[in-house]
Amino acid sequence: MEEMMEILVERYELAMERMTEIKEEEFADKEWENFFHDMASFCLIVDGYGRFLDAAKEAKQPLTDWQKWNARLYQDILPESYKSSYANPAYACKMLGEEYGKLAAALYAEMRAMIIPMAEGRKEEVVIRLELFSEFHGAFTCEMEESGKLPSYEQLRQMLYWYVSDYSDIITRQKVQEMVVADGNFGAKVIEEYAPEDLEYLYHYGEYVSENEVKMAQFMASLPQEKINTMADTYTEGYRMGFVLGNKDLSKKGTVEIRYALGFERMMKRAVENFVAMGLKPVVRRTPVGILQGGGLIKLGAIGGNPNKQFDYDHKDDIALLLDKGLVNRKLEVNRTSFEEFKAQAYLYAGPAVQETFGEKTFEPVNKKEALSLSKEQQKLMVEYRSNLGQIQRDYIIEEERSFTIIAFPVPEIGKDFEGIFEDTIKINTLDYMKYRQIQQSLIDALDQADYVELKGMNGNTTDLRVSLWKLNNPEKETIFENCVADVNIPVGEVFTSPVLKGTNGVLNVSKVYLNELEYKDLTITFTDGMITAYTCKNFEVEAENKKYIKENLLFHRETLPLGEFAIGTNTTAYVTARKWGIEDKLPILIAEKTGPHFAVGDTCYSHAEDVKVYNPDGKEIVARENEIVAKRKENPAESYFDCHTDITIPYDELGELTAVQADGSRIPIIEKGRFVLPGALALNKPLDGEDF
Fold this sequence. Notes:
By secondary structure, the chain is of the alpha+beta class. It has an 8-stranded antiparallel sheet, covered by helices on one side. Strands 1, 2, 3, 4 and 5 form a 5-stranded parallel sheet that branches. A 5-stranded antiparallel sheet has the order 9-10-14-15-17, covered by helices on one side.
């Protein structure tokens, strides 16, 4: 081990010497010279950051120095710098030509992935990227000297291809270890050592730290411990109840994956204490970045500020440079090998406990022709890869034995009313679930009589949809909808089911919705027998761009998805709170889905756990746990799951009618013109009328 470390140190020092030389070298092609100088300069900044971290281990460094290094690491992709950065595909293509420019921008983005491993002291992951850049530069130097021409695009692309293929084992092993092994987990250590009087800890992750994260940390430090306890205890109790209500044995598990936003460490410290009392050690993942790690738009783990969401959007499909069947097989192989190595720890993994945030500035992406995108064949390969990767994980992490929970809080970026919104969010997250349980049971009793549900929009909403429901064999002991109280999905407030696909037809429309960090304007989806058959939105002037946007980011490159869930949100308190503060467009799906009927495209809520019996508080078994597609899972599992589940909510003020229709045609009105009209659910209108509930 010592000899390997000496070799690694030597490789690193040689690579950094080469970066210093490249930064000063002249090159026949001035545009490429500028590119190489910029890249080498960034590598030297990362080296300086590493030396600063070494010094910080020996003696405490001023907070201002931590802040300066954080700013230097991310300066080149901040919006004001991005226009003239080679990380920007549009600029890179303008300077280097379209073909080479796309490749150069992807390389630049990959080099930026050195920051997090440097912060965590994983030098090998830094070295392999430095050596990639040296090889890339060397190809130019040799070819220019020999022929006076640039190396071929294919030669350069192959360098990237074999870099990803060759080092996938190192990166994948690290990712799996980070997910299931508690010992030595970097993020968990930051929480353990958290001290509210010193903001330095925010900068230990290597993530971008904006004013938003600093203000959040300061605010959390100012709260009384009782309030912190309320937040953390709600979060961890929801997690525990997920196991209880799901008839799953928590005592068999040993680790819990906690996901949170930087600034919430004080809450997480209390949460960790609670989890440890349950017998669970914390693990914290880091968001994948770059081609080698398989980065994309979805963030998870310990999440810092985002210096530039357009940068993420521009590079979400960089893998298009390389993706082929061979690479897919290679990545699946190393994933299985890594899970096999850590199979004992994977078995103890209890699932994620997620703390989300909301209130960040709305992001409207720009579609750039210079950004890489997947071909149709690559889209199919990506679908295949994600499906098979999900199956590998489920082979080691038993879906029927794990659970999760999600809770959300606002961040200071939401605006001047932040503290008031925060207080109201705590109230929403801690509502009396017993009141809701009784009211929601009255909804379920009505819905259990229905053959289908009919929904129509109003106030410009063009929804006209019929949702077919499961048919009960024994109504005395069976039910269609789950009575969802505050356990895995905090806050309280919904009843949901897996709809029958055949007979589910019509149009779903919503004026504005925010899904997976992207906004959709006037989103319209058409269903035929429960499957998406058409879709559009009004984000872009060109219709083809709207369809591409939806296919890439909502269908995840699939041609279609089923309607996996139909639910009725009952949390009118959350709805009124959003209206009170004018934050309807800021709510996360977690809360937004409770403020009206919602529809999830993709898998059902019982994905991979359909055979586990689940019961409502009244003792009835929830039998609608699958649909016609997933019913074939034992014959063809690869085509029965989609590994996605995205909720789309119609707010009450856009809902004209929601009616349960019985087999004989008789109708049971549930919501009319945005208000509950079903006897037994009328109390849900109190918040709408300004009354407490």
